[in-house]
Design brief:
heterodimer, A: 345 residues, 14 helices, 76% helix, B: 337 residues, 4-stranded antiparallel beta sheet, 13 helices
């Protein structure tokens, strides 16, 4: 009991230390994002107001935006606002960004989580079975499919999915997140959760149907990469002495593979999963555009079209922050999986 | 003292697919393991000792490995054609095994207790609590102090000797009839080696577990074995009672092995080593397999493969033409291959 308590305490202090070590990274990120607005050639106020703006209105906006002050004061101001959860105001909608960005973020998060779940469950298991029965027909087919999966352009795959499953077969909707004639009343903006909270299983099914095609399109590449990675590490682990020991105990292959081998093979796979999740968040723009998904990718894409700099800034900052957080979680999982990784550094 | 054979290996031939050829790693070996004895199997690397033991565990990796011929009779039952499911009931329960590398033979990610209890609960109906009690009992049996604490530790927290003790405890979990120890002391330093050997001898006496000790070290054999089999390139070259073999070796290979054991009291000359190396499996097609390295080889050795000949001492057998010539009347016991 006492040892368990001290273990938890060690893990907790380790977590806290790791979170603190992220501070320089986060500061670096804000600097880069802040620099973006200053990297725009000419006066941002000019850019915002357009070609035909009067000198007077430009001067007013410059003052309004505080752009006439030295950059370090502006940066301090920006950080101060960030710390208060204020991401600024969208130039297009004139609304506060921190209020409107959440629904887009939730939409992307929902899509990414479902896609990653599919990629992990299918990819890891395909990799395991391929390694278990290596050089079997399953192995060959799975690895050829994985190779194809990595090579397929997402936009092409998305369009093909829509053509087959929506247009030809009519099984699934082509675009969007919900039935527009029966919209989901948002609470958390995670529609799968919201529909359940409101006791609307019919809407839940509709939302799920909308999720199938985009999440499959998004899952393809990580699934293929995870499958290949899992197969490679599993093959190596299954040659090891402790796997032979487990077999010599009389354990069935199922336990040898899913207990003794998988836990040892999972660390490199975790790394890949972390990186791929980050990539999905950033790479969702393509999928979201094809499937009309109101996510952060679309939000940013539209913002770029309108030169909505505060929105672009905030979007990039949030995606970068999430990427860092995911990798923190992966690092913490390492310690959880492997007792040899020390709680130091 | 007549003991019943518990494990009887008859004319076992195990081959491995390399490229398009089937290469024999073990080629027609036969021996009996008597209940309660400690049998040593000696040979250089590549002589087929480990393959023989893996065959007795049903753990020949297949493919590429394949048991081509022979029988593995355990308590009167041929194990060669039993299903994987039946094998699992024997492995770790009736026949168990410990390996050369204690540093890598335990899973680094699970506690000692987890791995030990896994072996116990797999073959018995013990509850978790009873399995913990049994684990502690086993760890004490193999001489591990503070057994309760060790259960919660991970392998990397233990020394090599301790890990090998844990491996032995794991192998002993279900009171196996036969314990196969594949070079259990090779990776350990000398003082620990002696402790582990003493432990195995002790277990053999206390629990009447029959032990096959695979080693390349004749010193180890002299220490604890009762009988010894000398293997070379997949065949048995000489077998018999330990005293006979050590005092009066008959095969030139056994003589060479004995000469290459360092002796503390001995002369200060350079240590003897048998010239050449073990032939790669499948490279010798005719003649005695040892002929190329044998200092006493003659024409017949290059052409024909000698059979095992029965010497005067009971159970002492030698595969060498020198003895057929001298005695002339040696009786065939092996199967010509």
């Amino acid at each position: 009991m006492l040892t368990l308590f001290s273990e938890v305490k060690k893990l907790f202090t380790y977590t806290v230390r790791r979170v603190f070590s992220l501070i320089p990274v986060l500061i670096g990120m804000t600097l880069v994002v802040f620099a973006i607005i200053h990297a725009i050639p000419g006066n941002p106020a000019q850019v915002i107001l357009g070609q035909r703006a009067t000198a007077e209105s430009i001067a007013t906006l410059t003052k309004e935006l505080g752009l006439n002050r030295p950059w370090y004061i502006q940066y301090a101001d920006y950080i101060n606002a960030l710390l208060h959860g204020d991401l600024g105001v969208s130039l297009r909608t004139r609304g506060p960004i921190n209020e409107e960005i959440w629904s887009y973020l939730a939409a992307t998060a929902e899509l990414t989580i479902v896609a990653m779940l599919i990629a992990i469950i299918v990819g890891v298991n395909a990799g395991i079975v391929s390694a278990w029965f290596s050089k079997s027909w399953f192995d060959y087919i799975a690895m050829v499919l994985a190779l194809i999966g990595v090579s397929l352009p997402i936009f092409w795959l998305g369009l093909m999915e829509q053509w087959v499953f929506s247009i030809e077969l009519g099984w699934l909707p082509t675009t969007g997140r919900e039935n527009v004639r029966d919209p989901v009343a948002a609470i958390t903006h995670f529609y799968l959760i919201d529909t359940l909270l409101q006791g609307r299983p019919d809407q839940f099914i509709t939302v799920l149907k909308h999720l199938v095609l985009p999440s499959l399109a998004l899952a393809t590449i990580p699934m293929a990469i995870i499958a290949r990675m899992t197969r490679a590490t599993m093959l190596e682990v299954m040659q090891s002495d402790y796997v032979r020991t487990a077999r010599a105990k009389g354990l069935s292959m199922f336990w040898v593979v899913y207990k003794h081998s998988l836990k040892n093979a999972v660390i490199p796979v975790l790394t890949i999963i972390g990186l791929q999740t980050g990539l999905l968040l950033g790479g969702a723009i393509l999928t979201e555009t094809i499937f009309g998904w109101p996510g952060i990718g679309r939000y940013l894409y539209d913002a770029i079209g309108y030169r909505d700099y505060p929105v672009i800034q905030s979007g990039i900052l949030i995606i970068a922050a999430i990427f860092v957080l995911i990798n923190l979680v992966v690092d913490l999982l390492y310690v959880f999986v492997d007792p040899r990784i020390k709680y130091t550094k | 003292m007549e003991k019943n054979p518990i494990l009887h290996i008859k004319d076992l031939k195990v081959s491995f697919q390399t490229g398009k050829k089937l290469v024999p790693a073990v080629d027609g070996i036969s021996f009996e393991l008597k209940d309660g004895e400690i049998l040593g199997i000696v040979g250089e690397s590549g002589s087929g000792k480990s393959v023989t033991s893996l065959a007795a565990m049903g753990l020949i990796p297949s493919p590429p490995g394949k048991i081509e011929n022979g029988e593995i009779i355990f308590e009167g039952k041929d194990l060669k054609n039993i299903s994987e499911k039946e094998w699992r009931k024997i492995r770790g329960n009736q026949i168990s095994m410990i390996f050369q590398e204690p540093m890598t033979s335990l899973n680094p990610l699970f506690t000692i207790g987890n791995q030990l209890m896994e072996a116990i609960r797999l073959h018995t109906d013990l509850s978790k609590r009873e399995a913990i009690v049994r684990s502690i009992e086993l760890l004490k049996l193999v001489g591990i102090p503070r057994a309760e604490g060790i259960l919660k530790e991970h392998p990397h927290q233990l020394s090599g000797g301790m890990r090998q003790r844990v491996m032995i405890a794991m192998a002993m979990a279900c009171n196996p009839k036969v314990l196969i120890a594949d070079e259990p002391t090779t990776a350990l330093d000398v003082t620990i080696q002696a402790q582990i050997l003493a432990l195995m001898k002790d277990l053999n006496k206390k629990t009447n577990t029959t032990i096959i000790l695979i080693t390349h070290d004749l010193g180890v054999v002299a220490e604890i074995c009762e009988r010894v089999i000398v293997m070379y390139a997949g065949q048995i070259l000489e077998q018999g009672d330990v005293r006979t073999i050590l005092k009066n070796p008959q095969h030139p290979y056994t003589k060479g092995l004995l000469k290459s054991v360092p002796d503390l009291r001995g002369k200060k000359d350079r240590l003897y080593s048998i010239p050449g190396t073990v032939p790669t499996p499948g490279s010798i097609h005719k003649g005695c397999r040892f002929a190329a390295r044998c200092t006493e080889a003659f024409a017949q050795c290059q052409e024909e493969t000698p059979d095992l000949f029965q010497m005067e001492n009971d159970g002492h057998e030698v595969r060498c033409f020198l003895h057929t010539l001298k005695k002339g009347s040696g009786s065939h016991v092996g199967v010509p291959s």
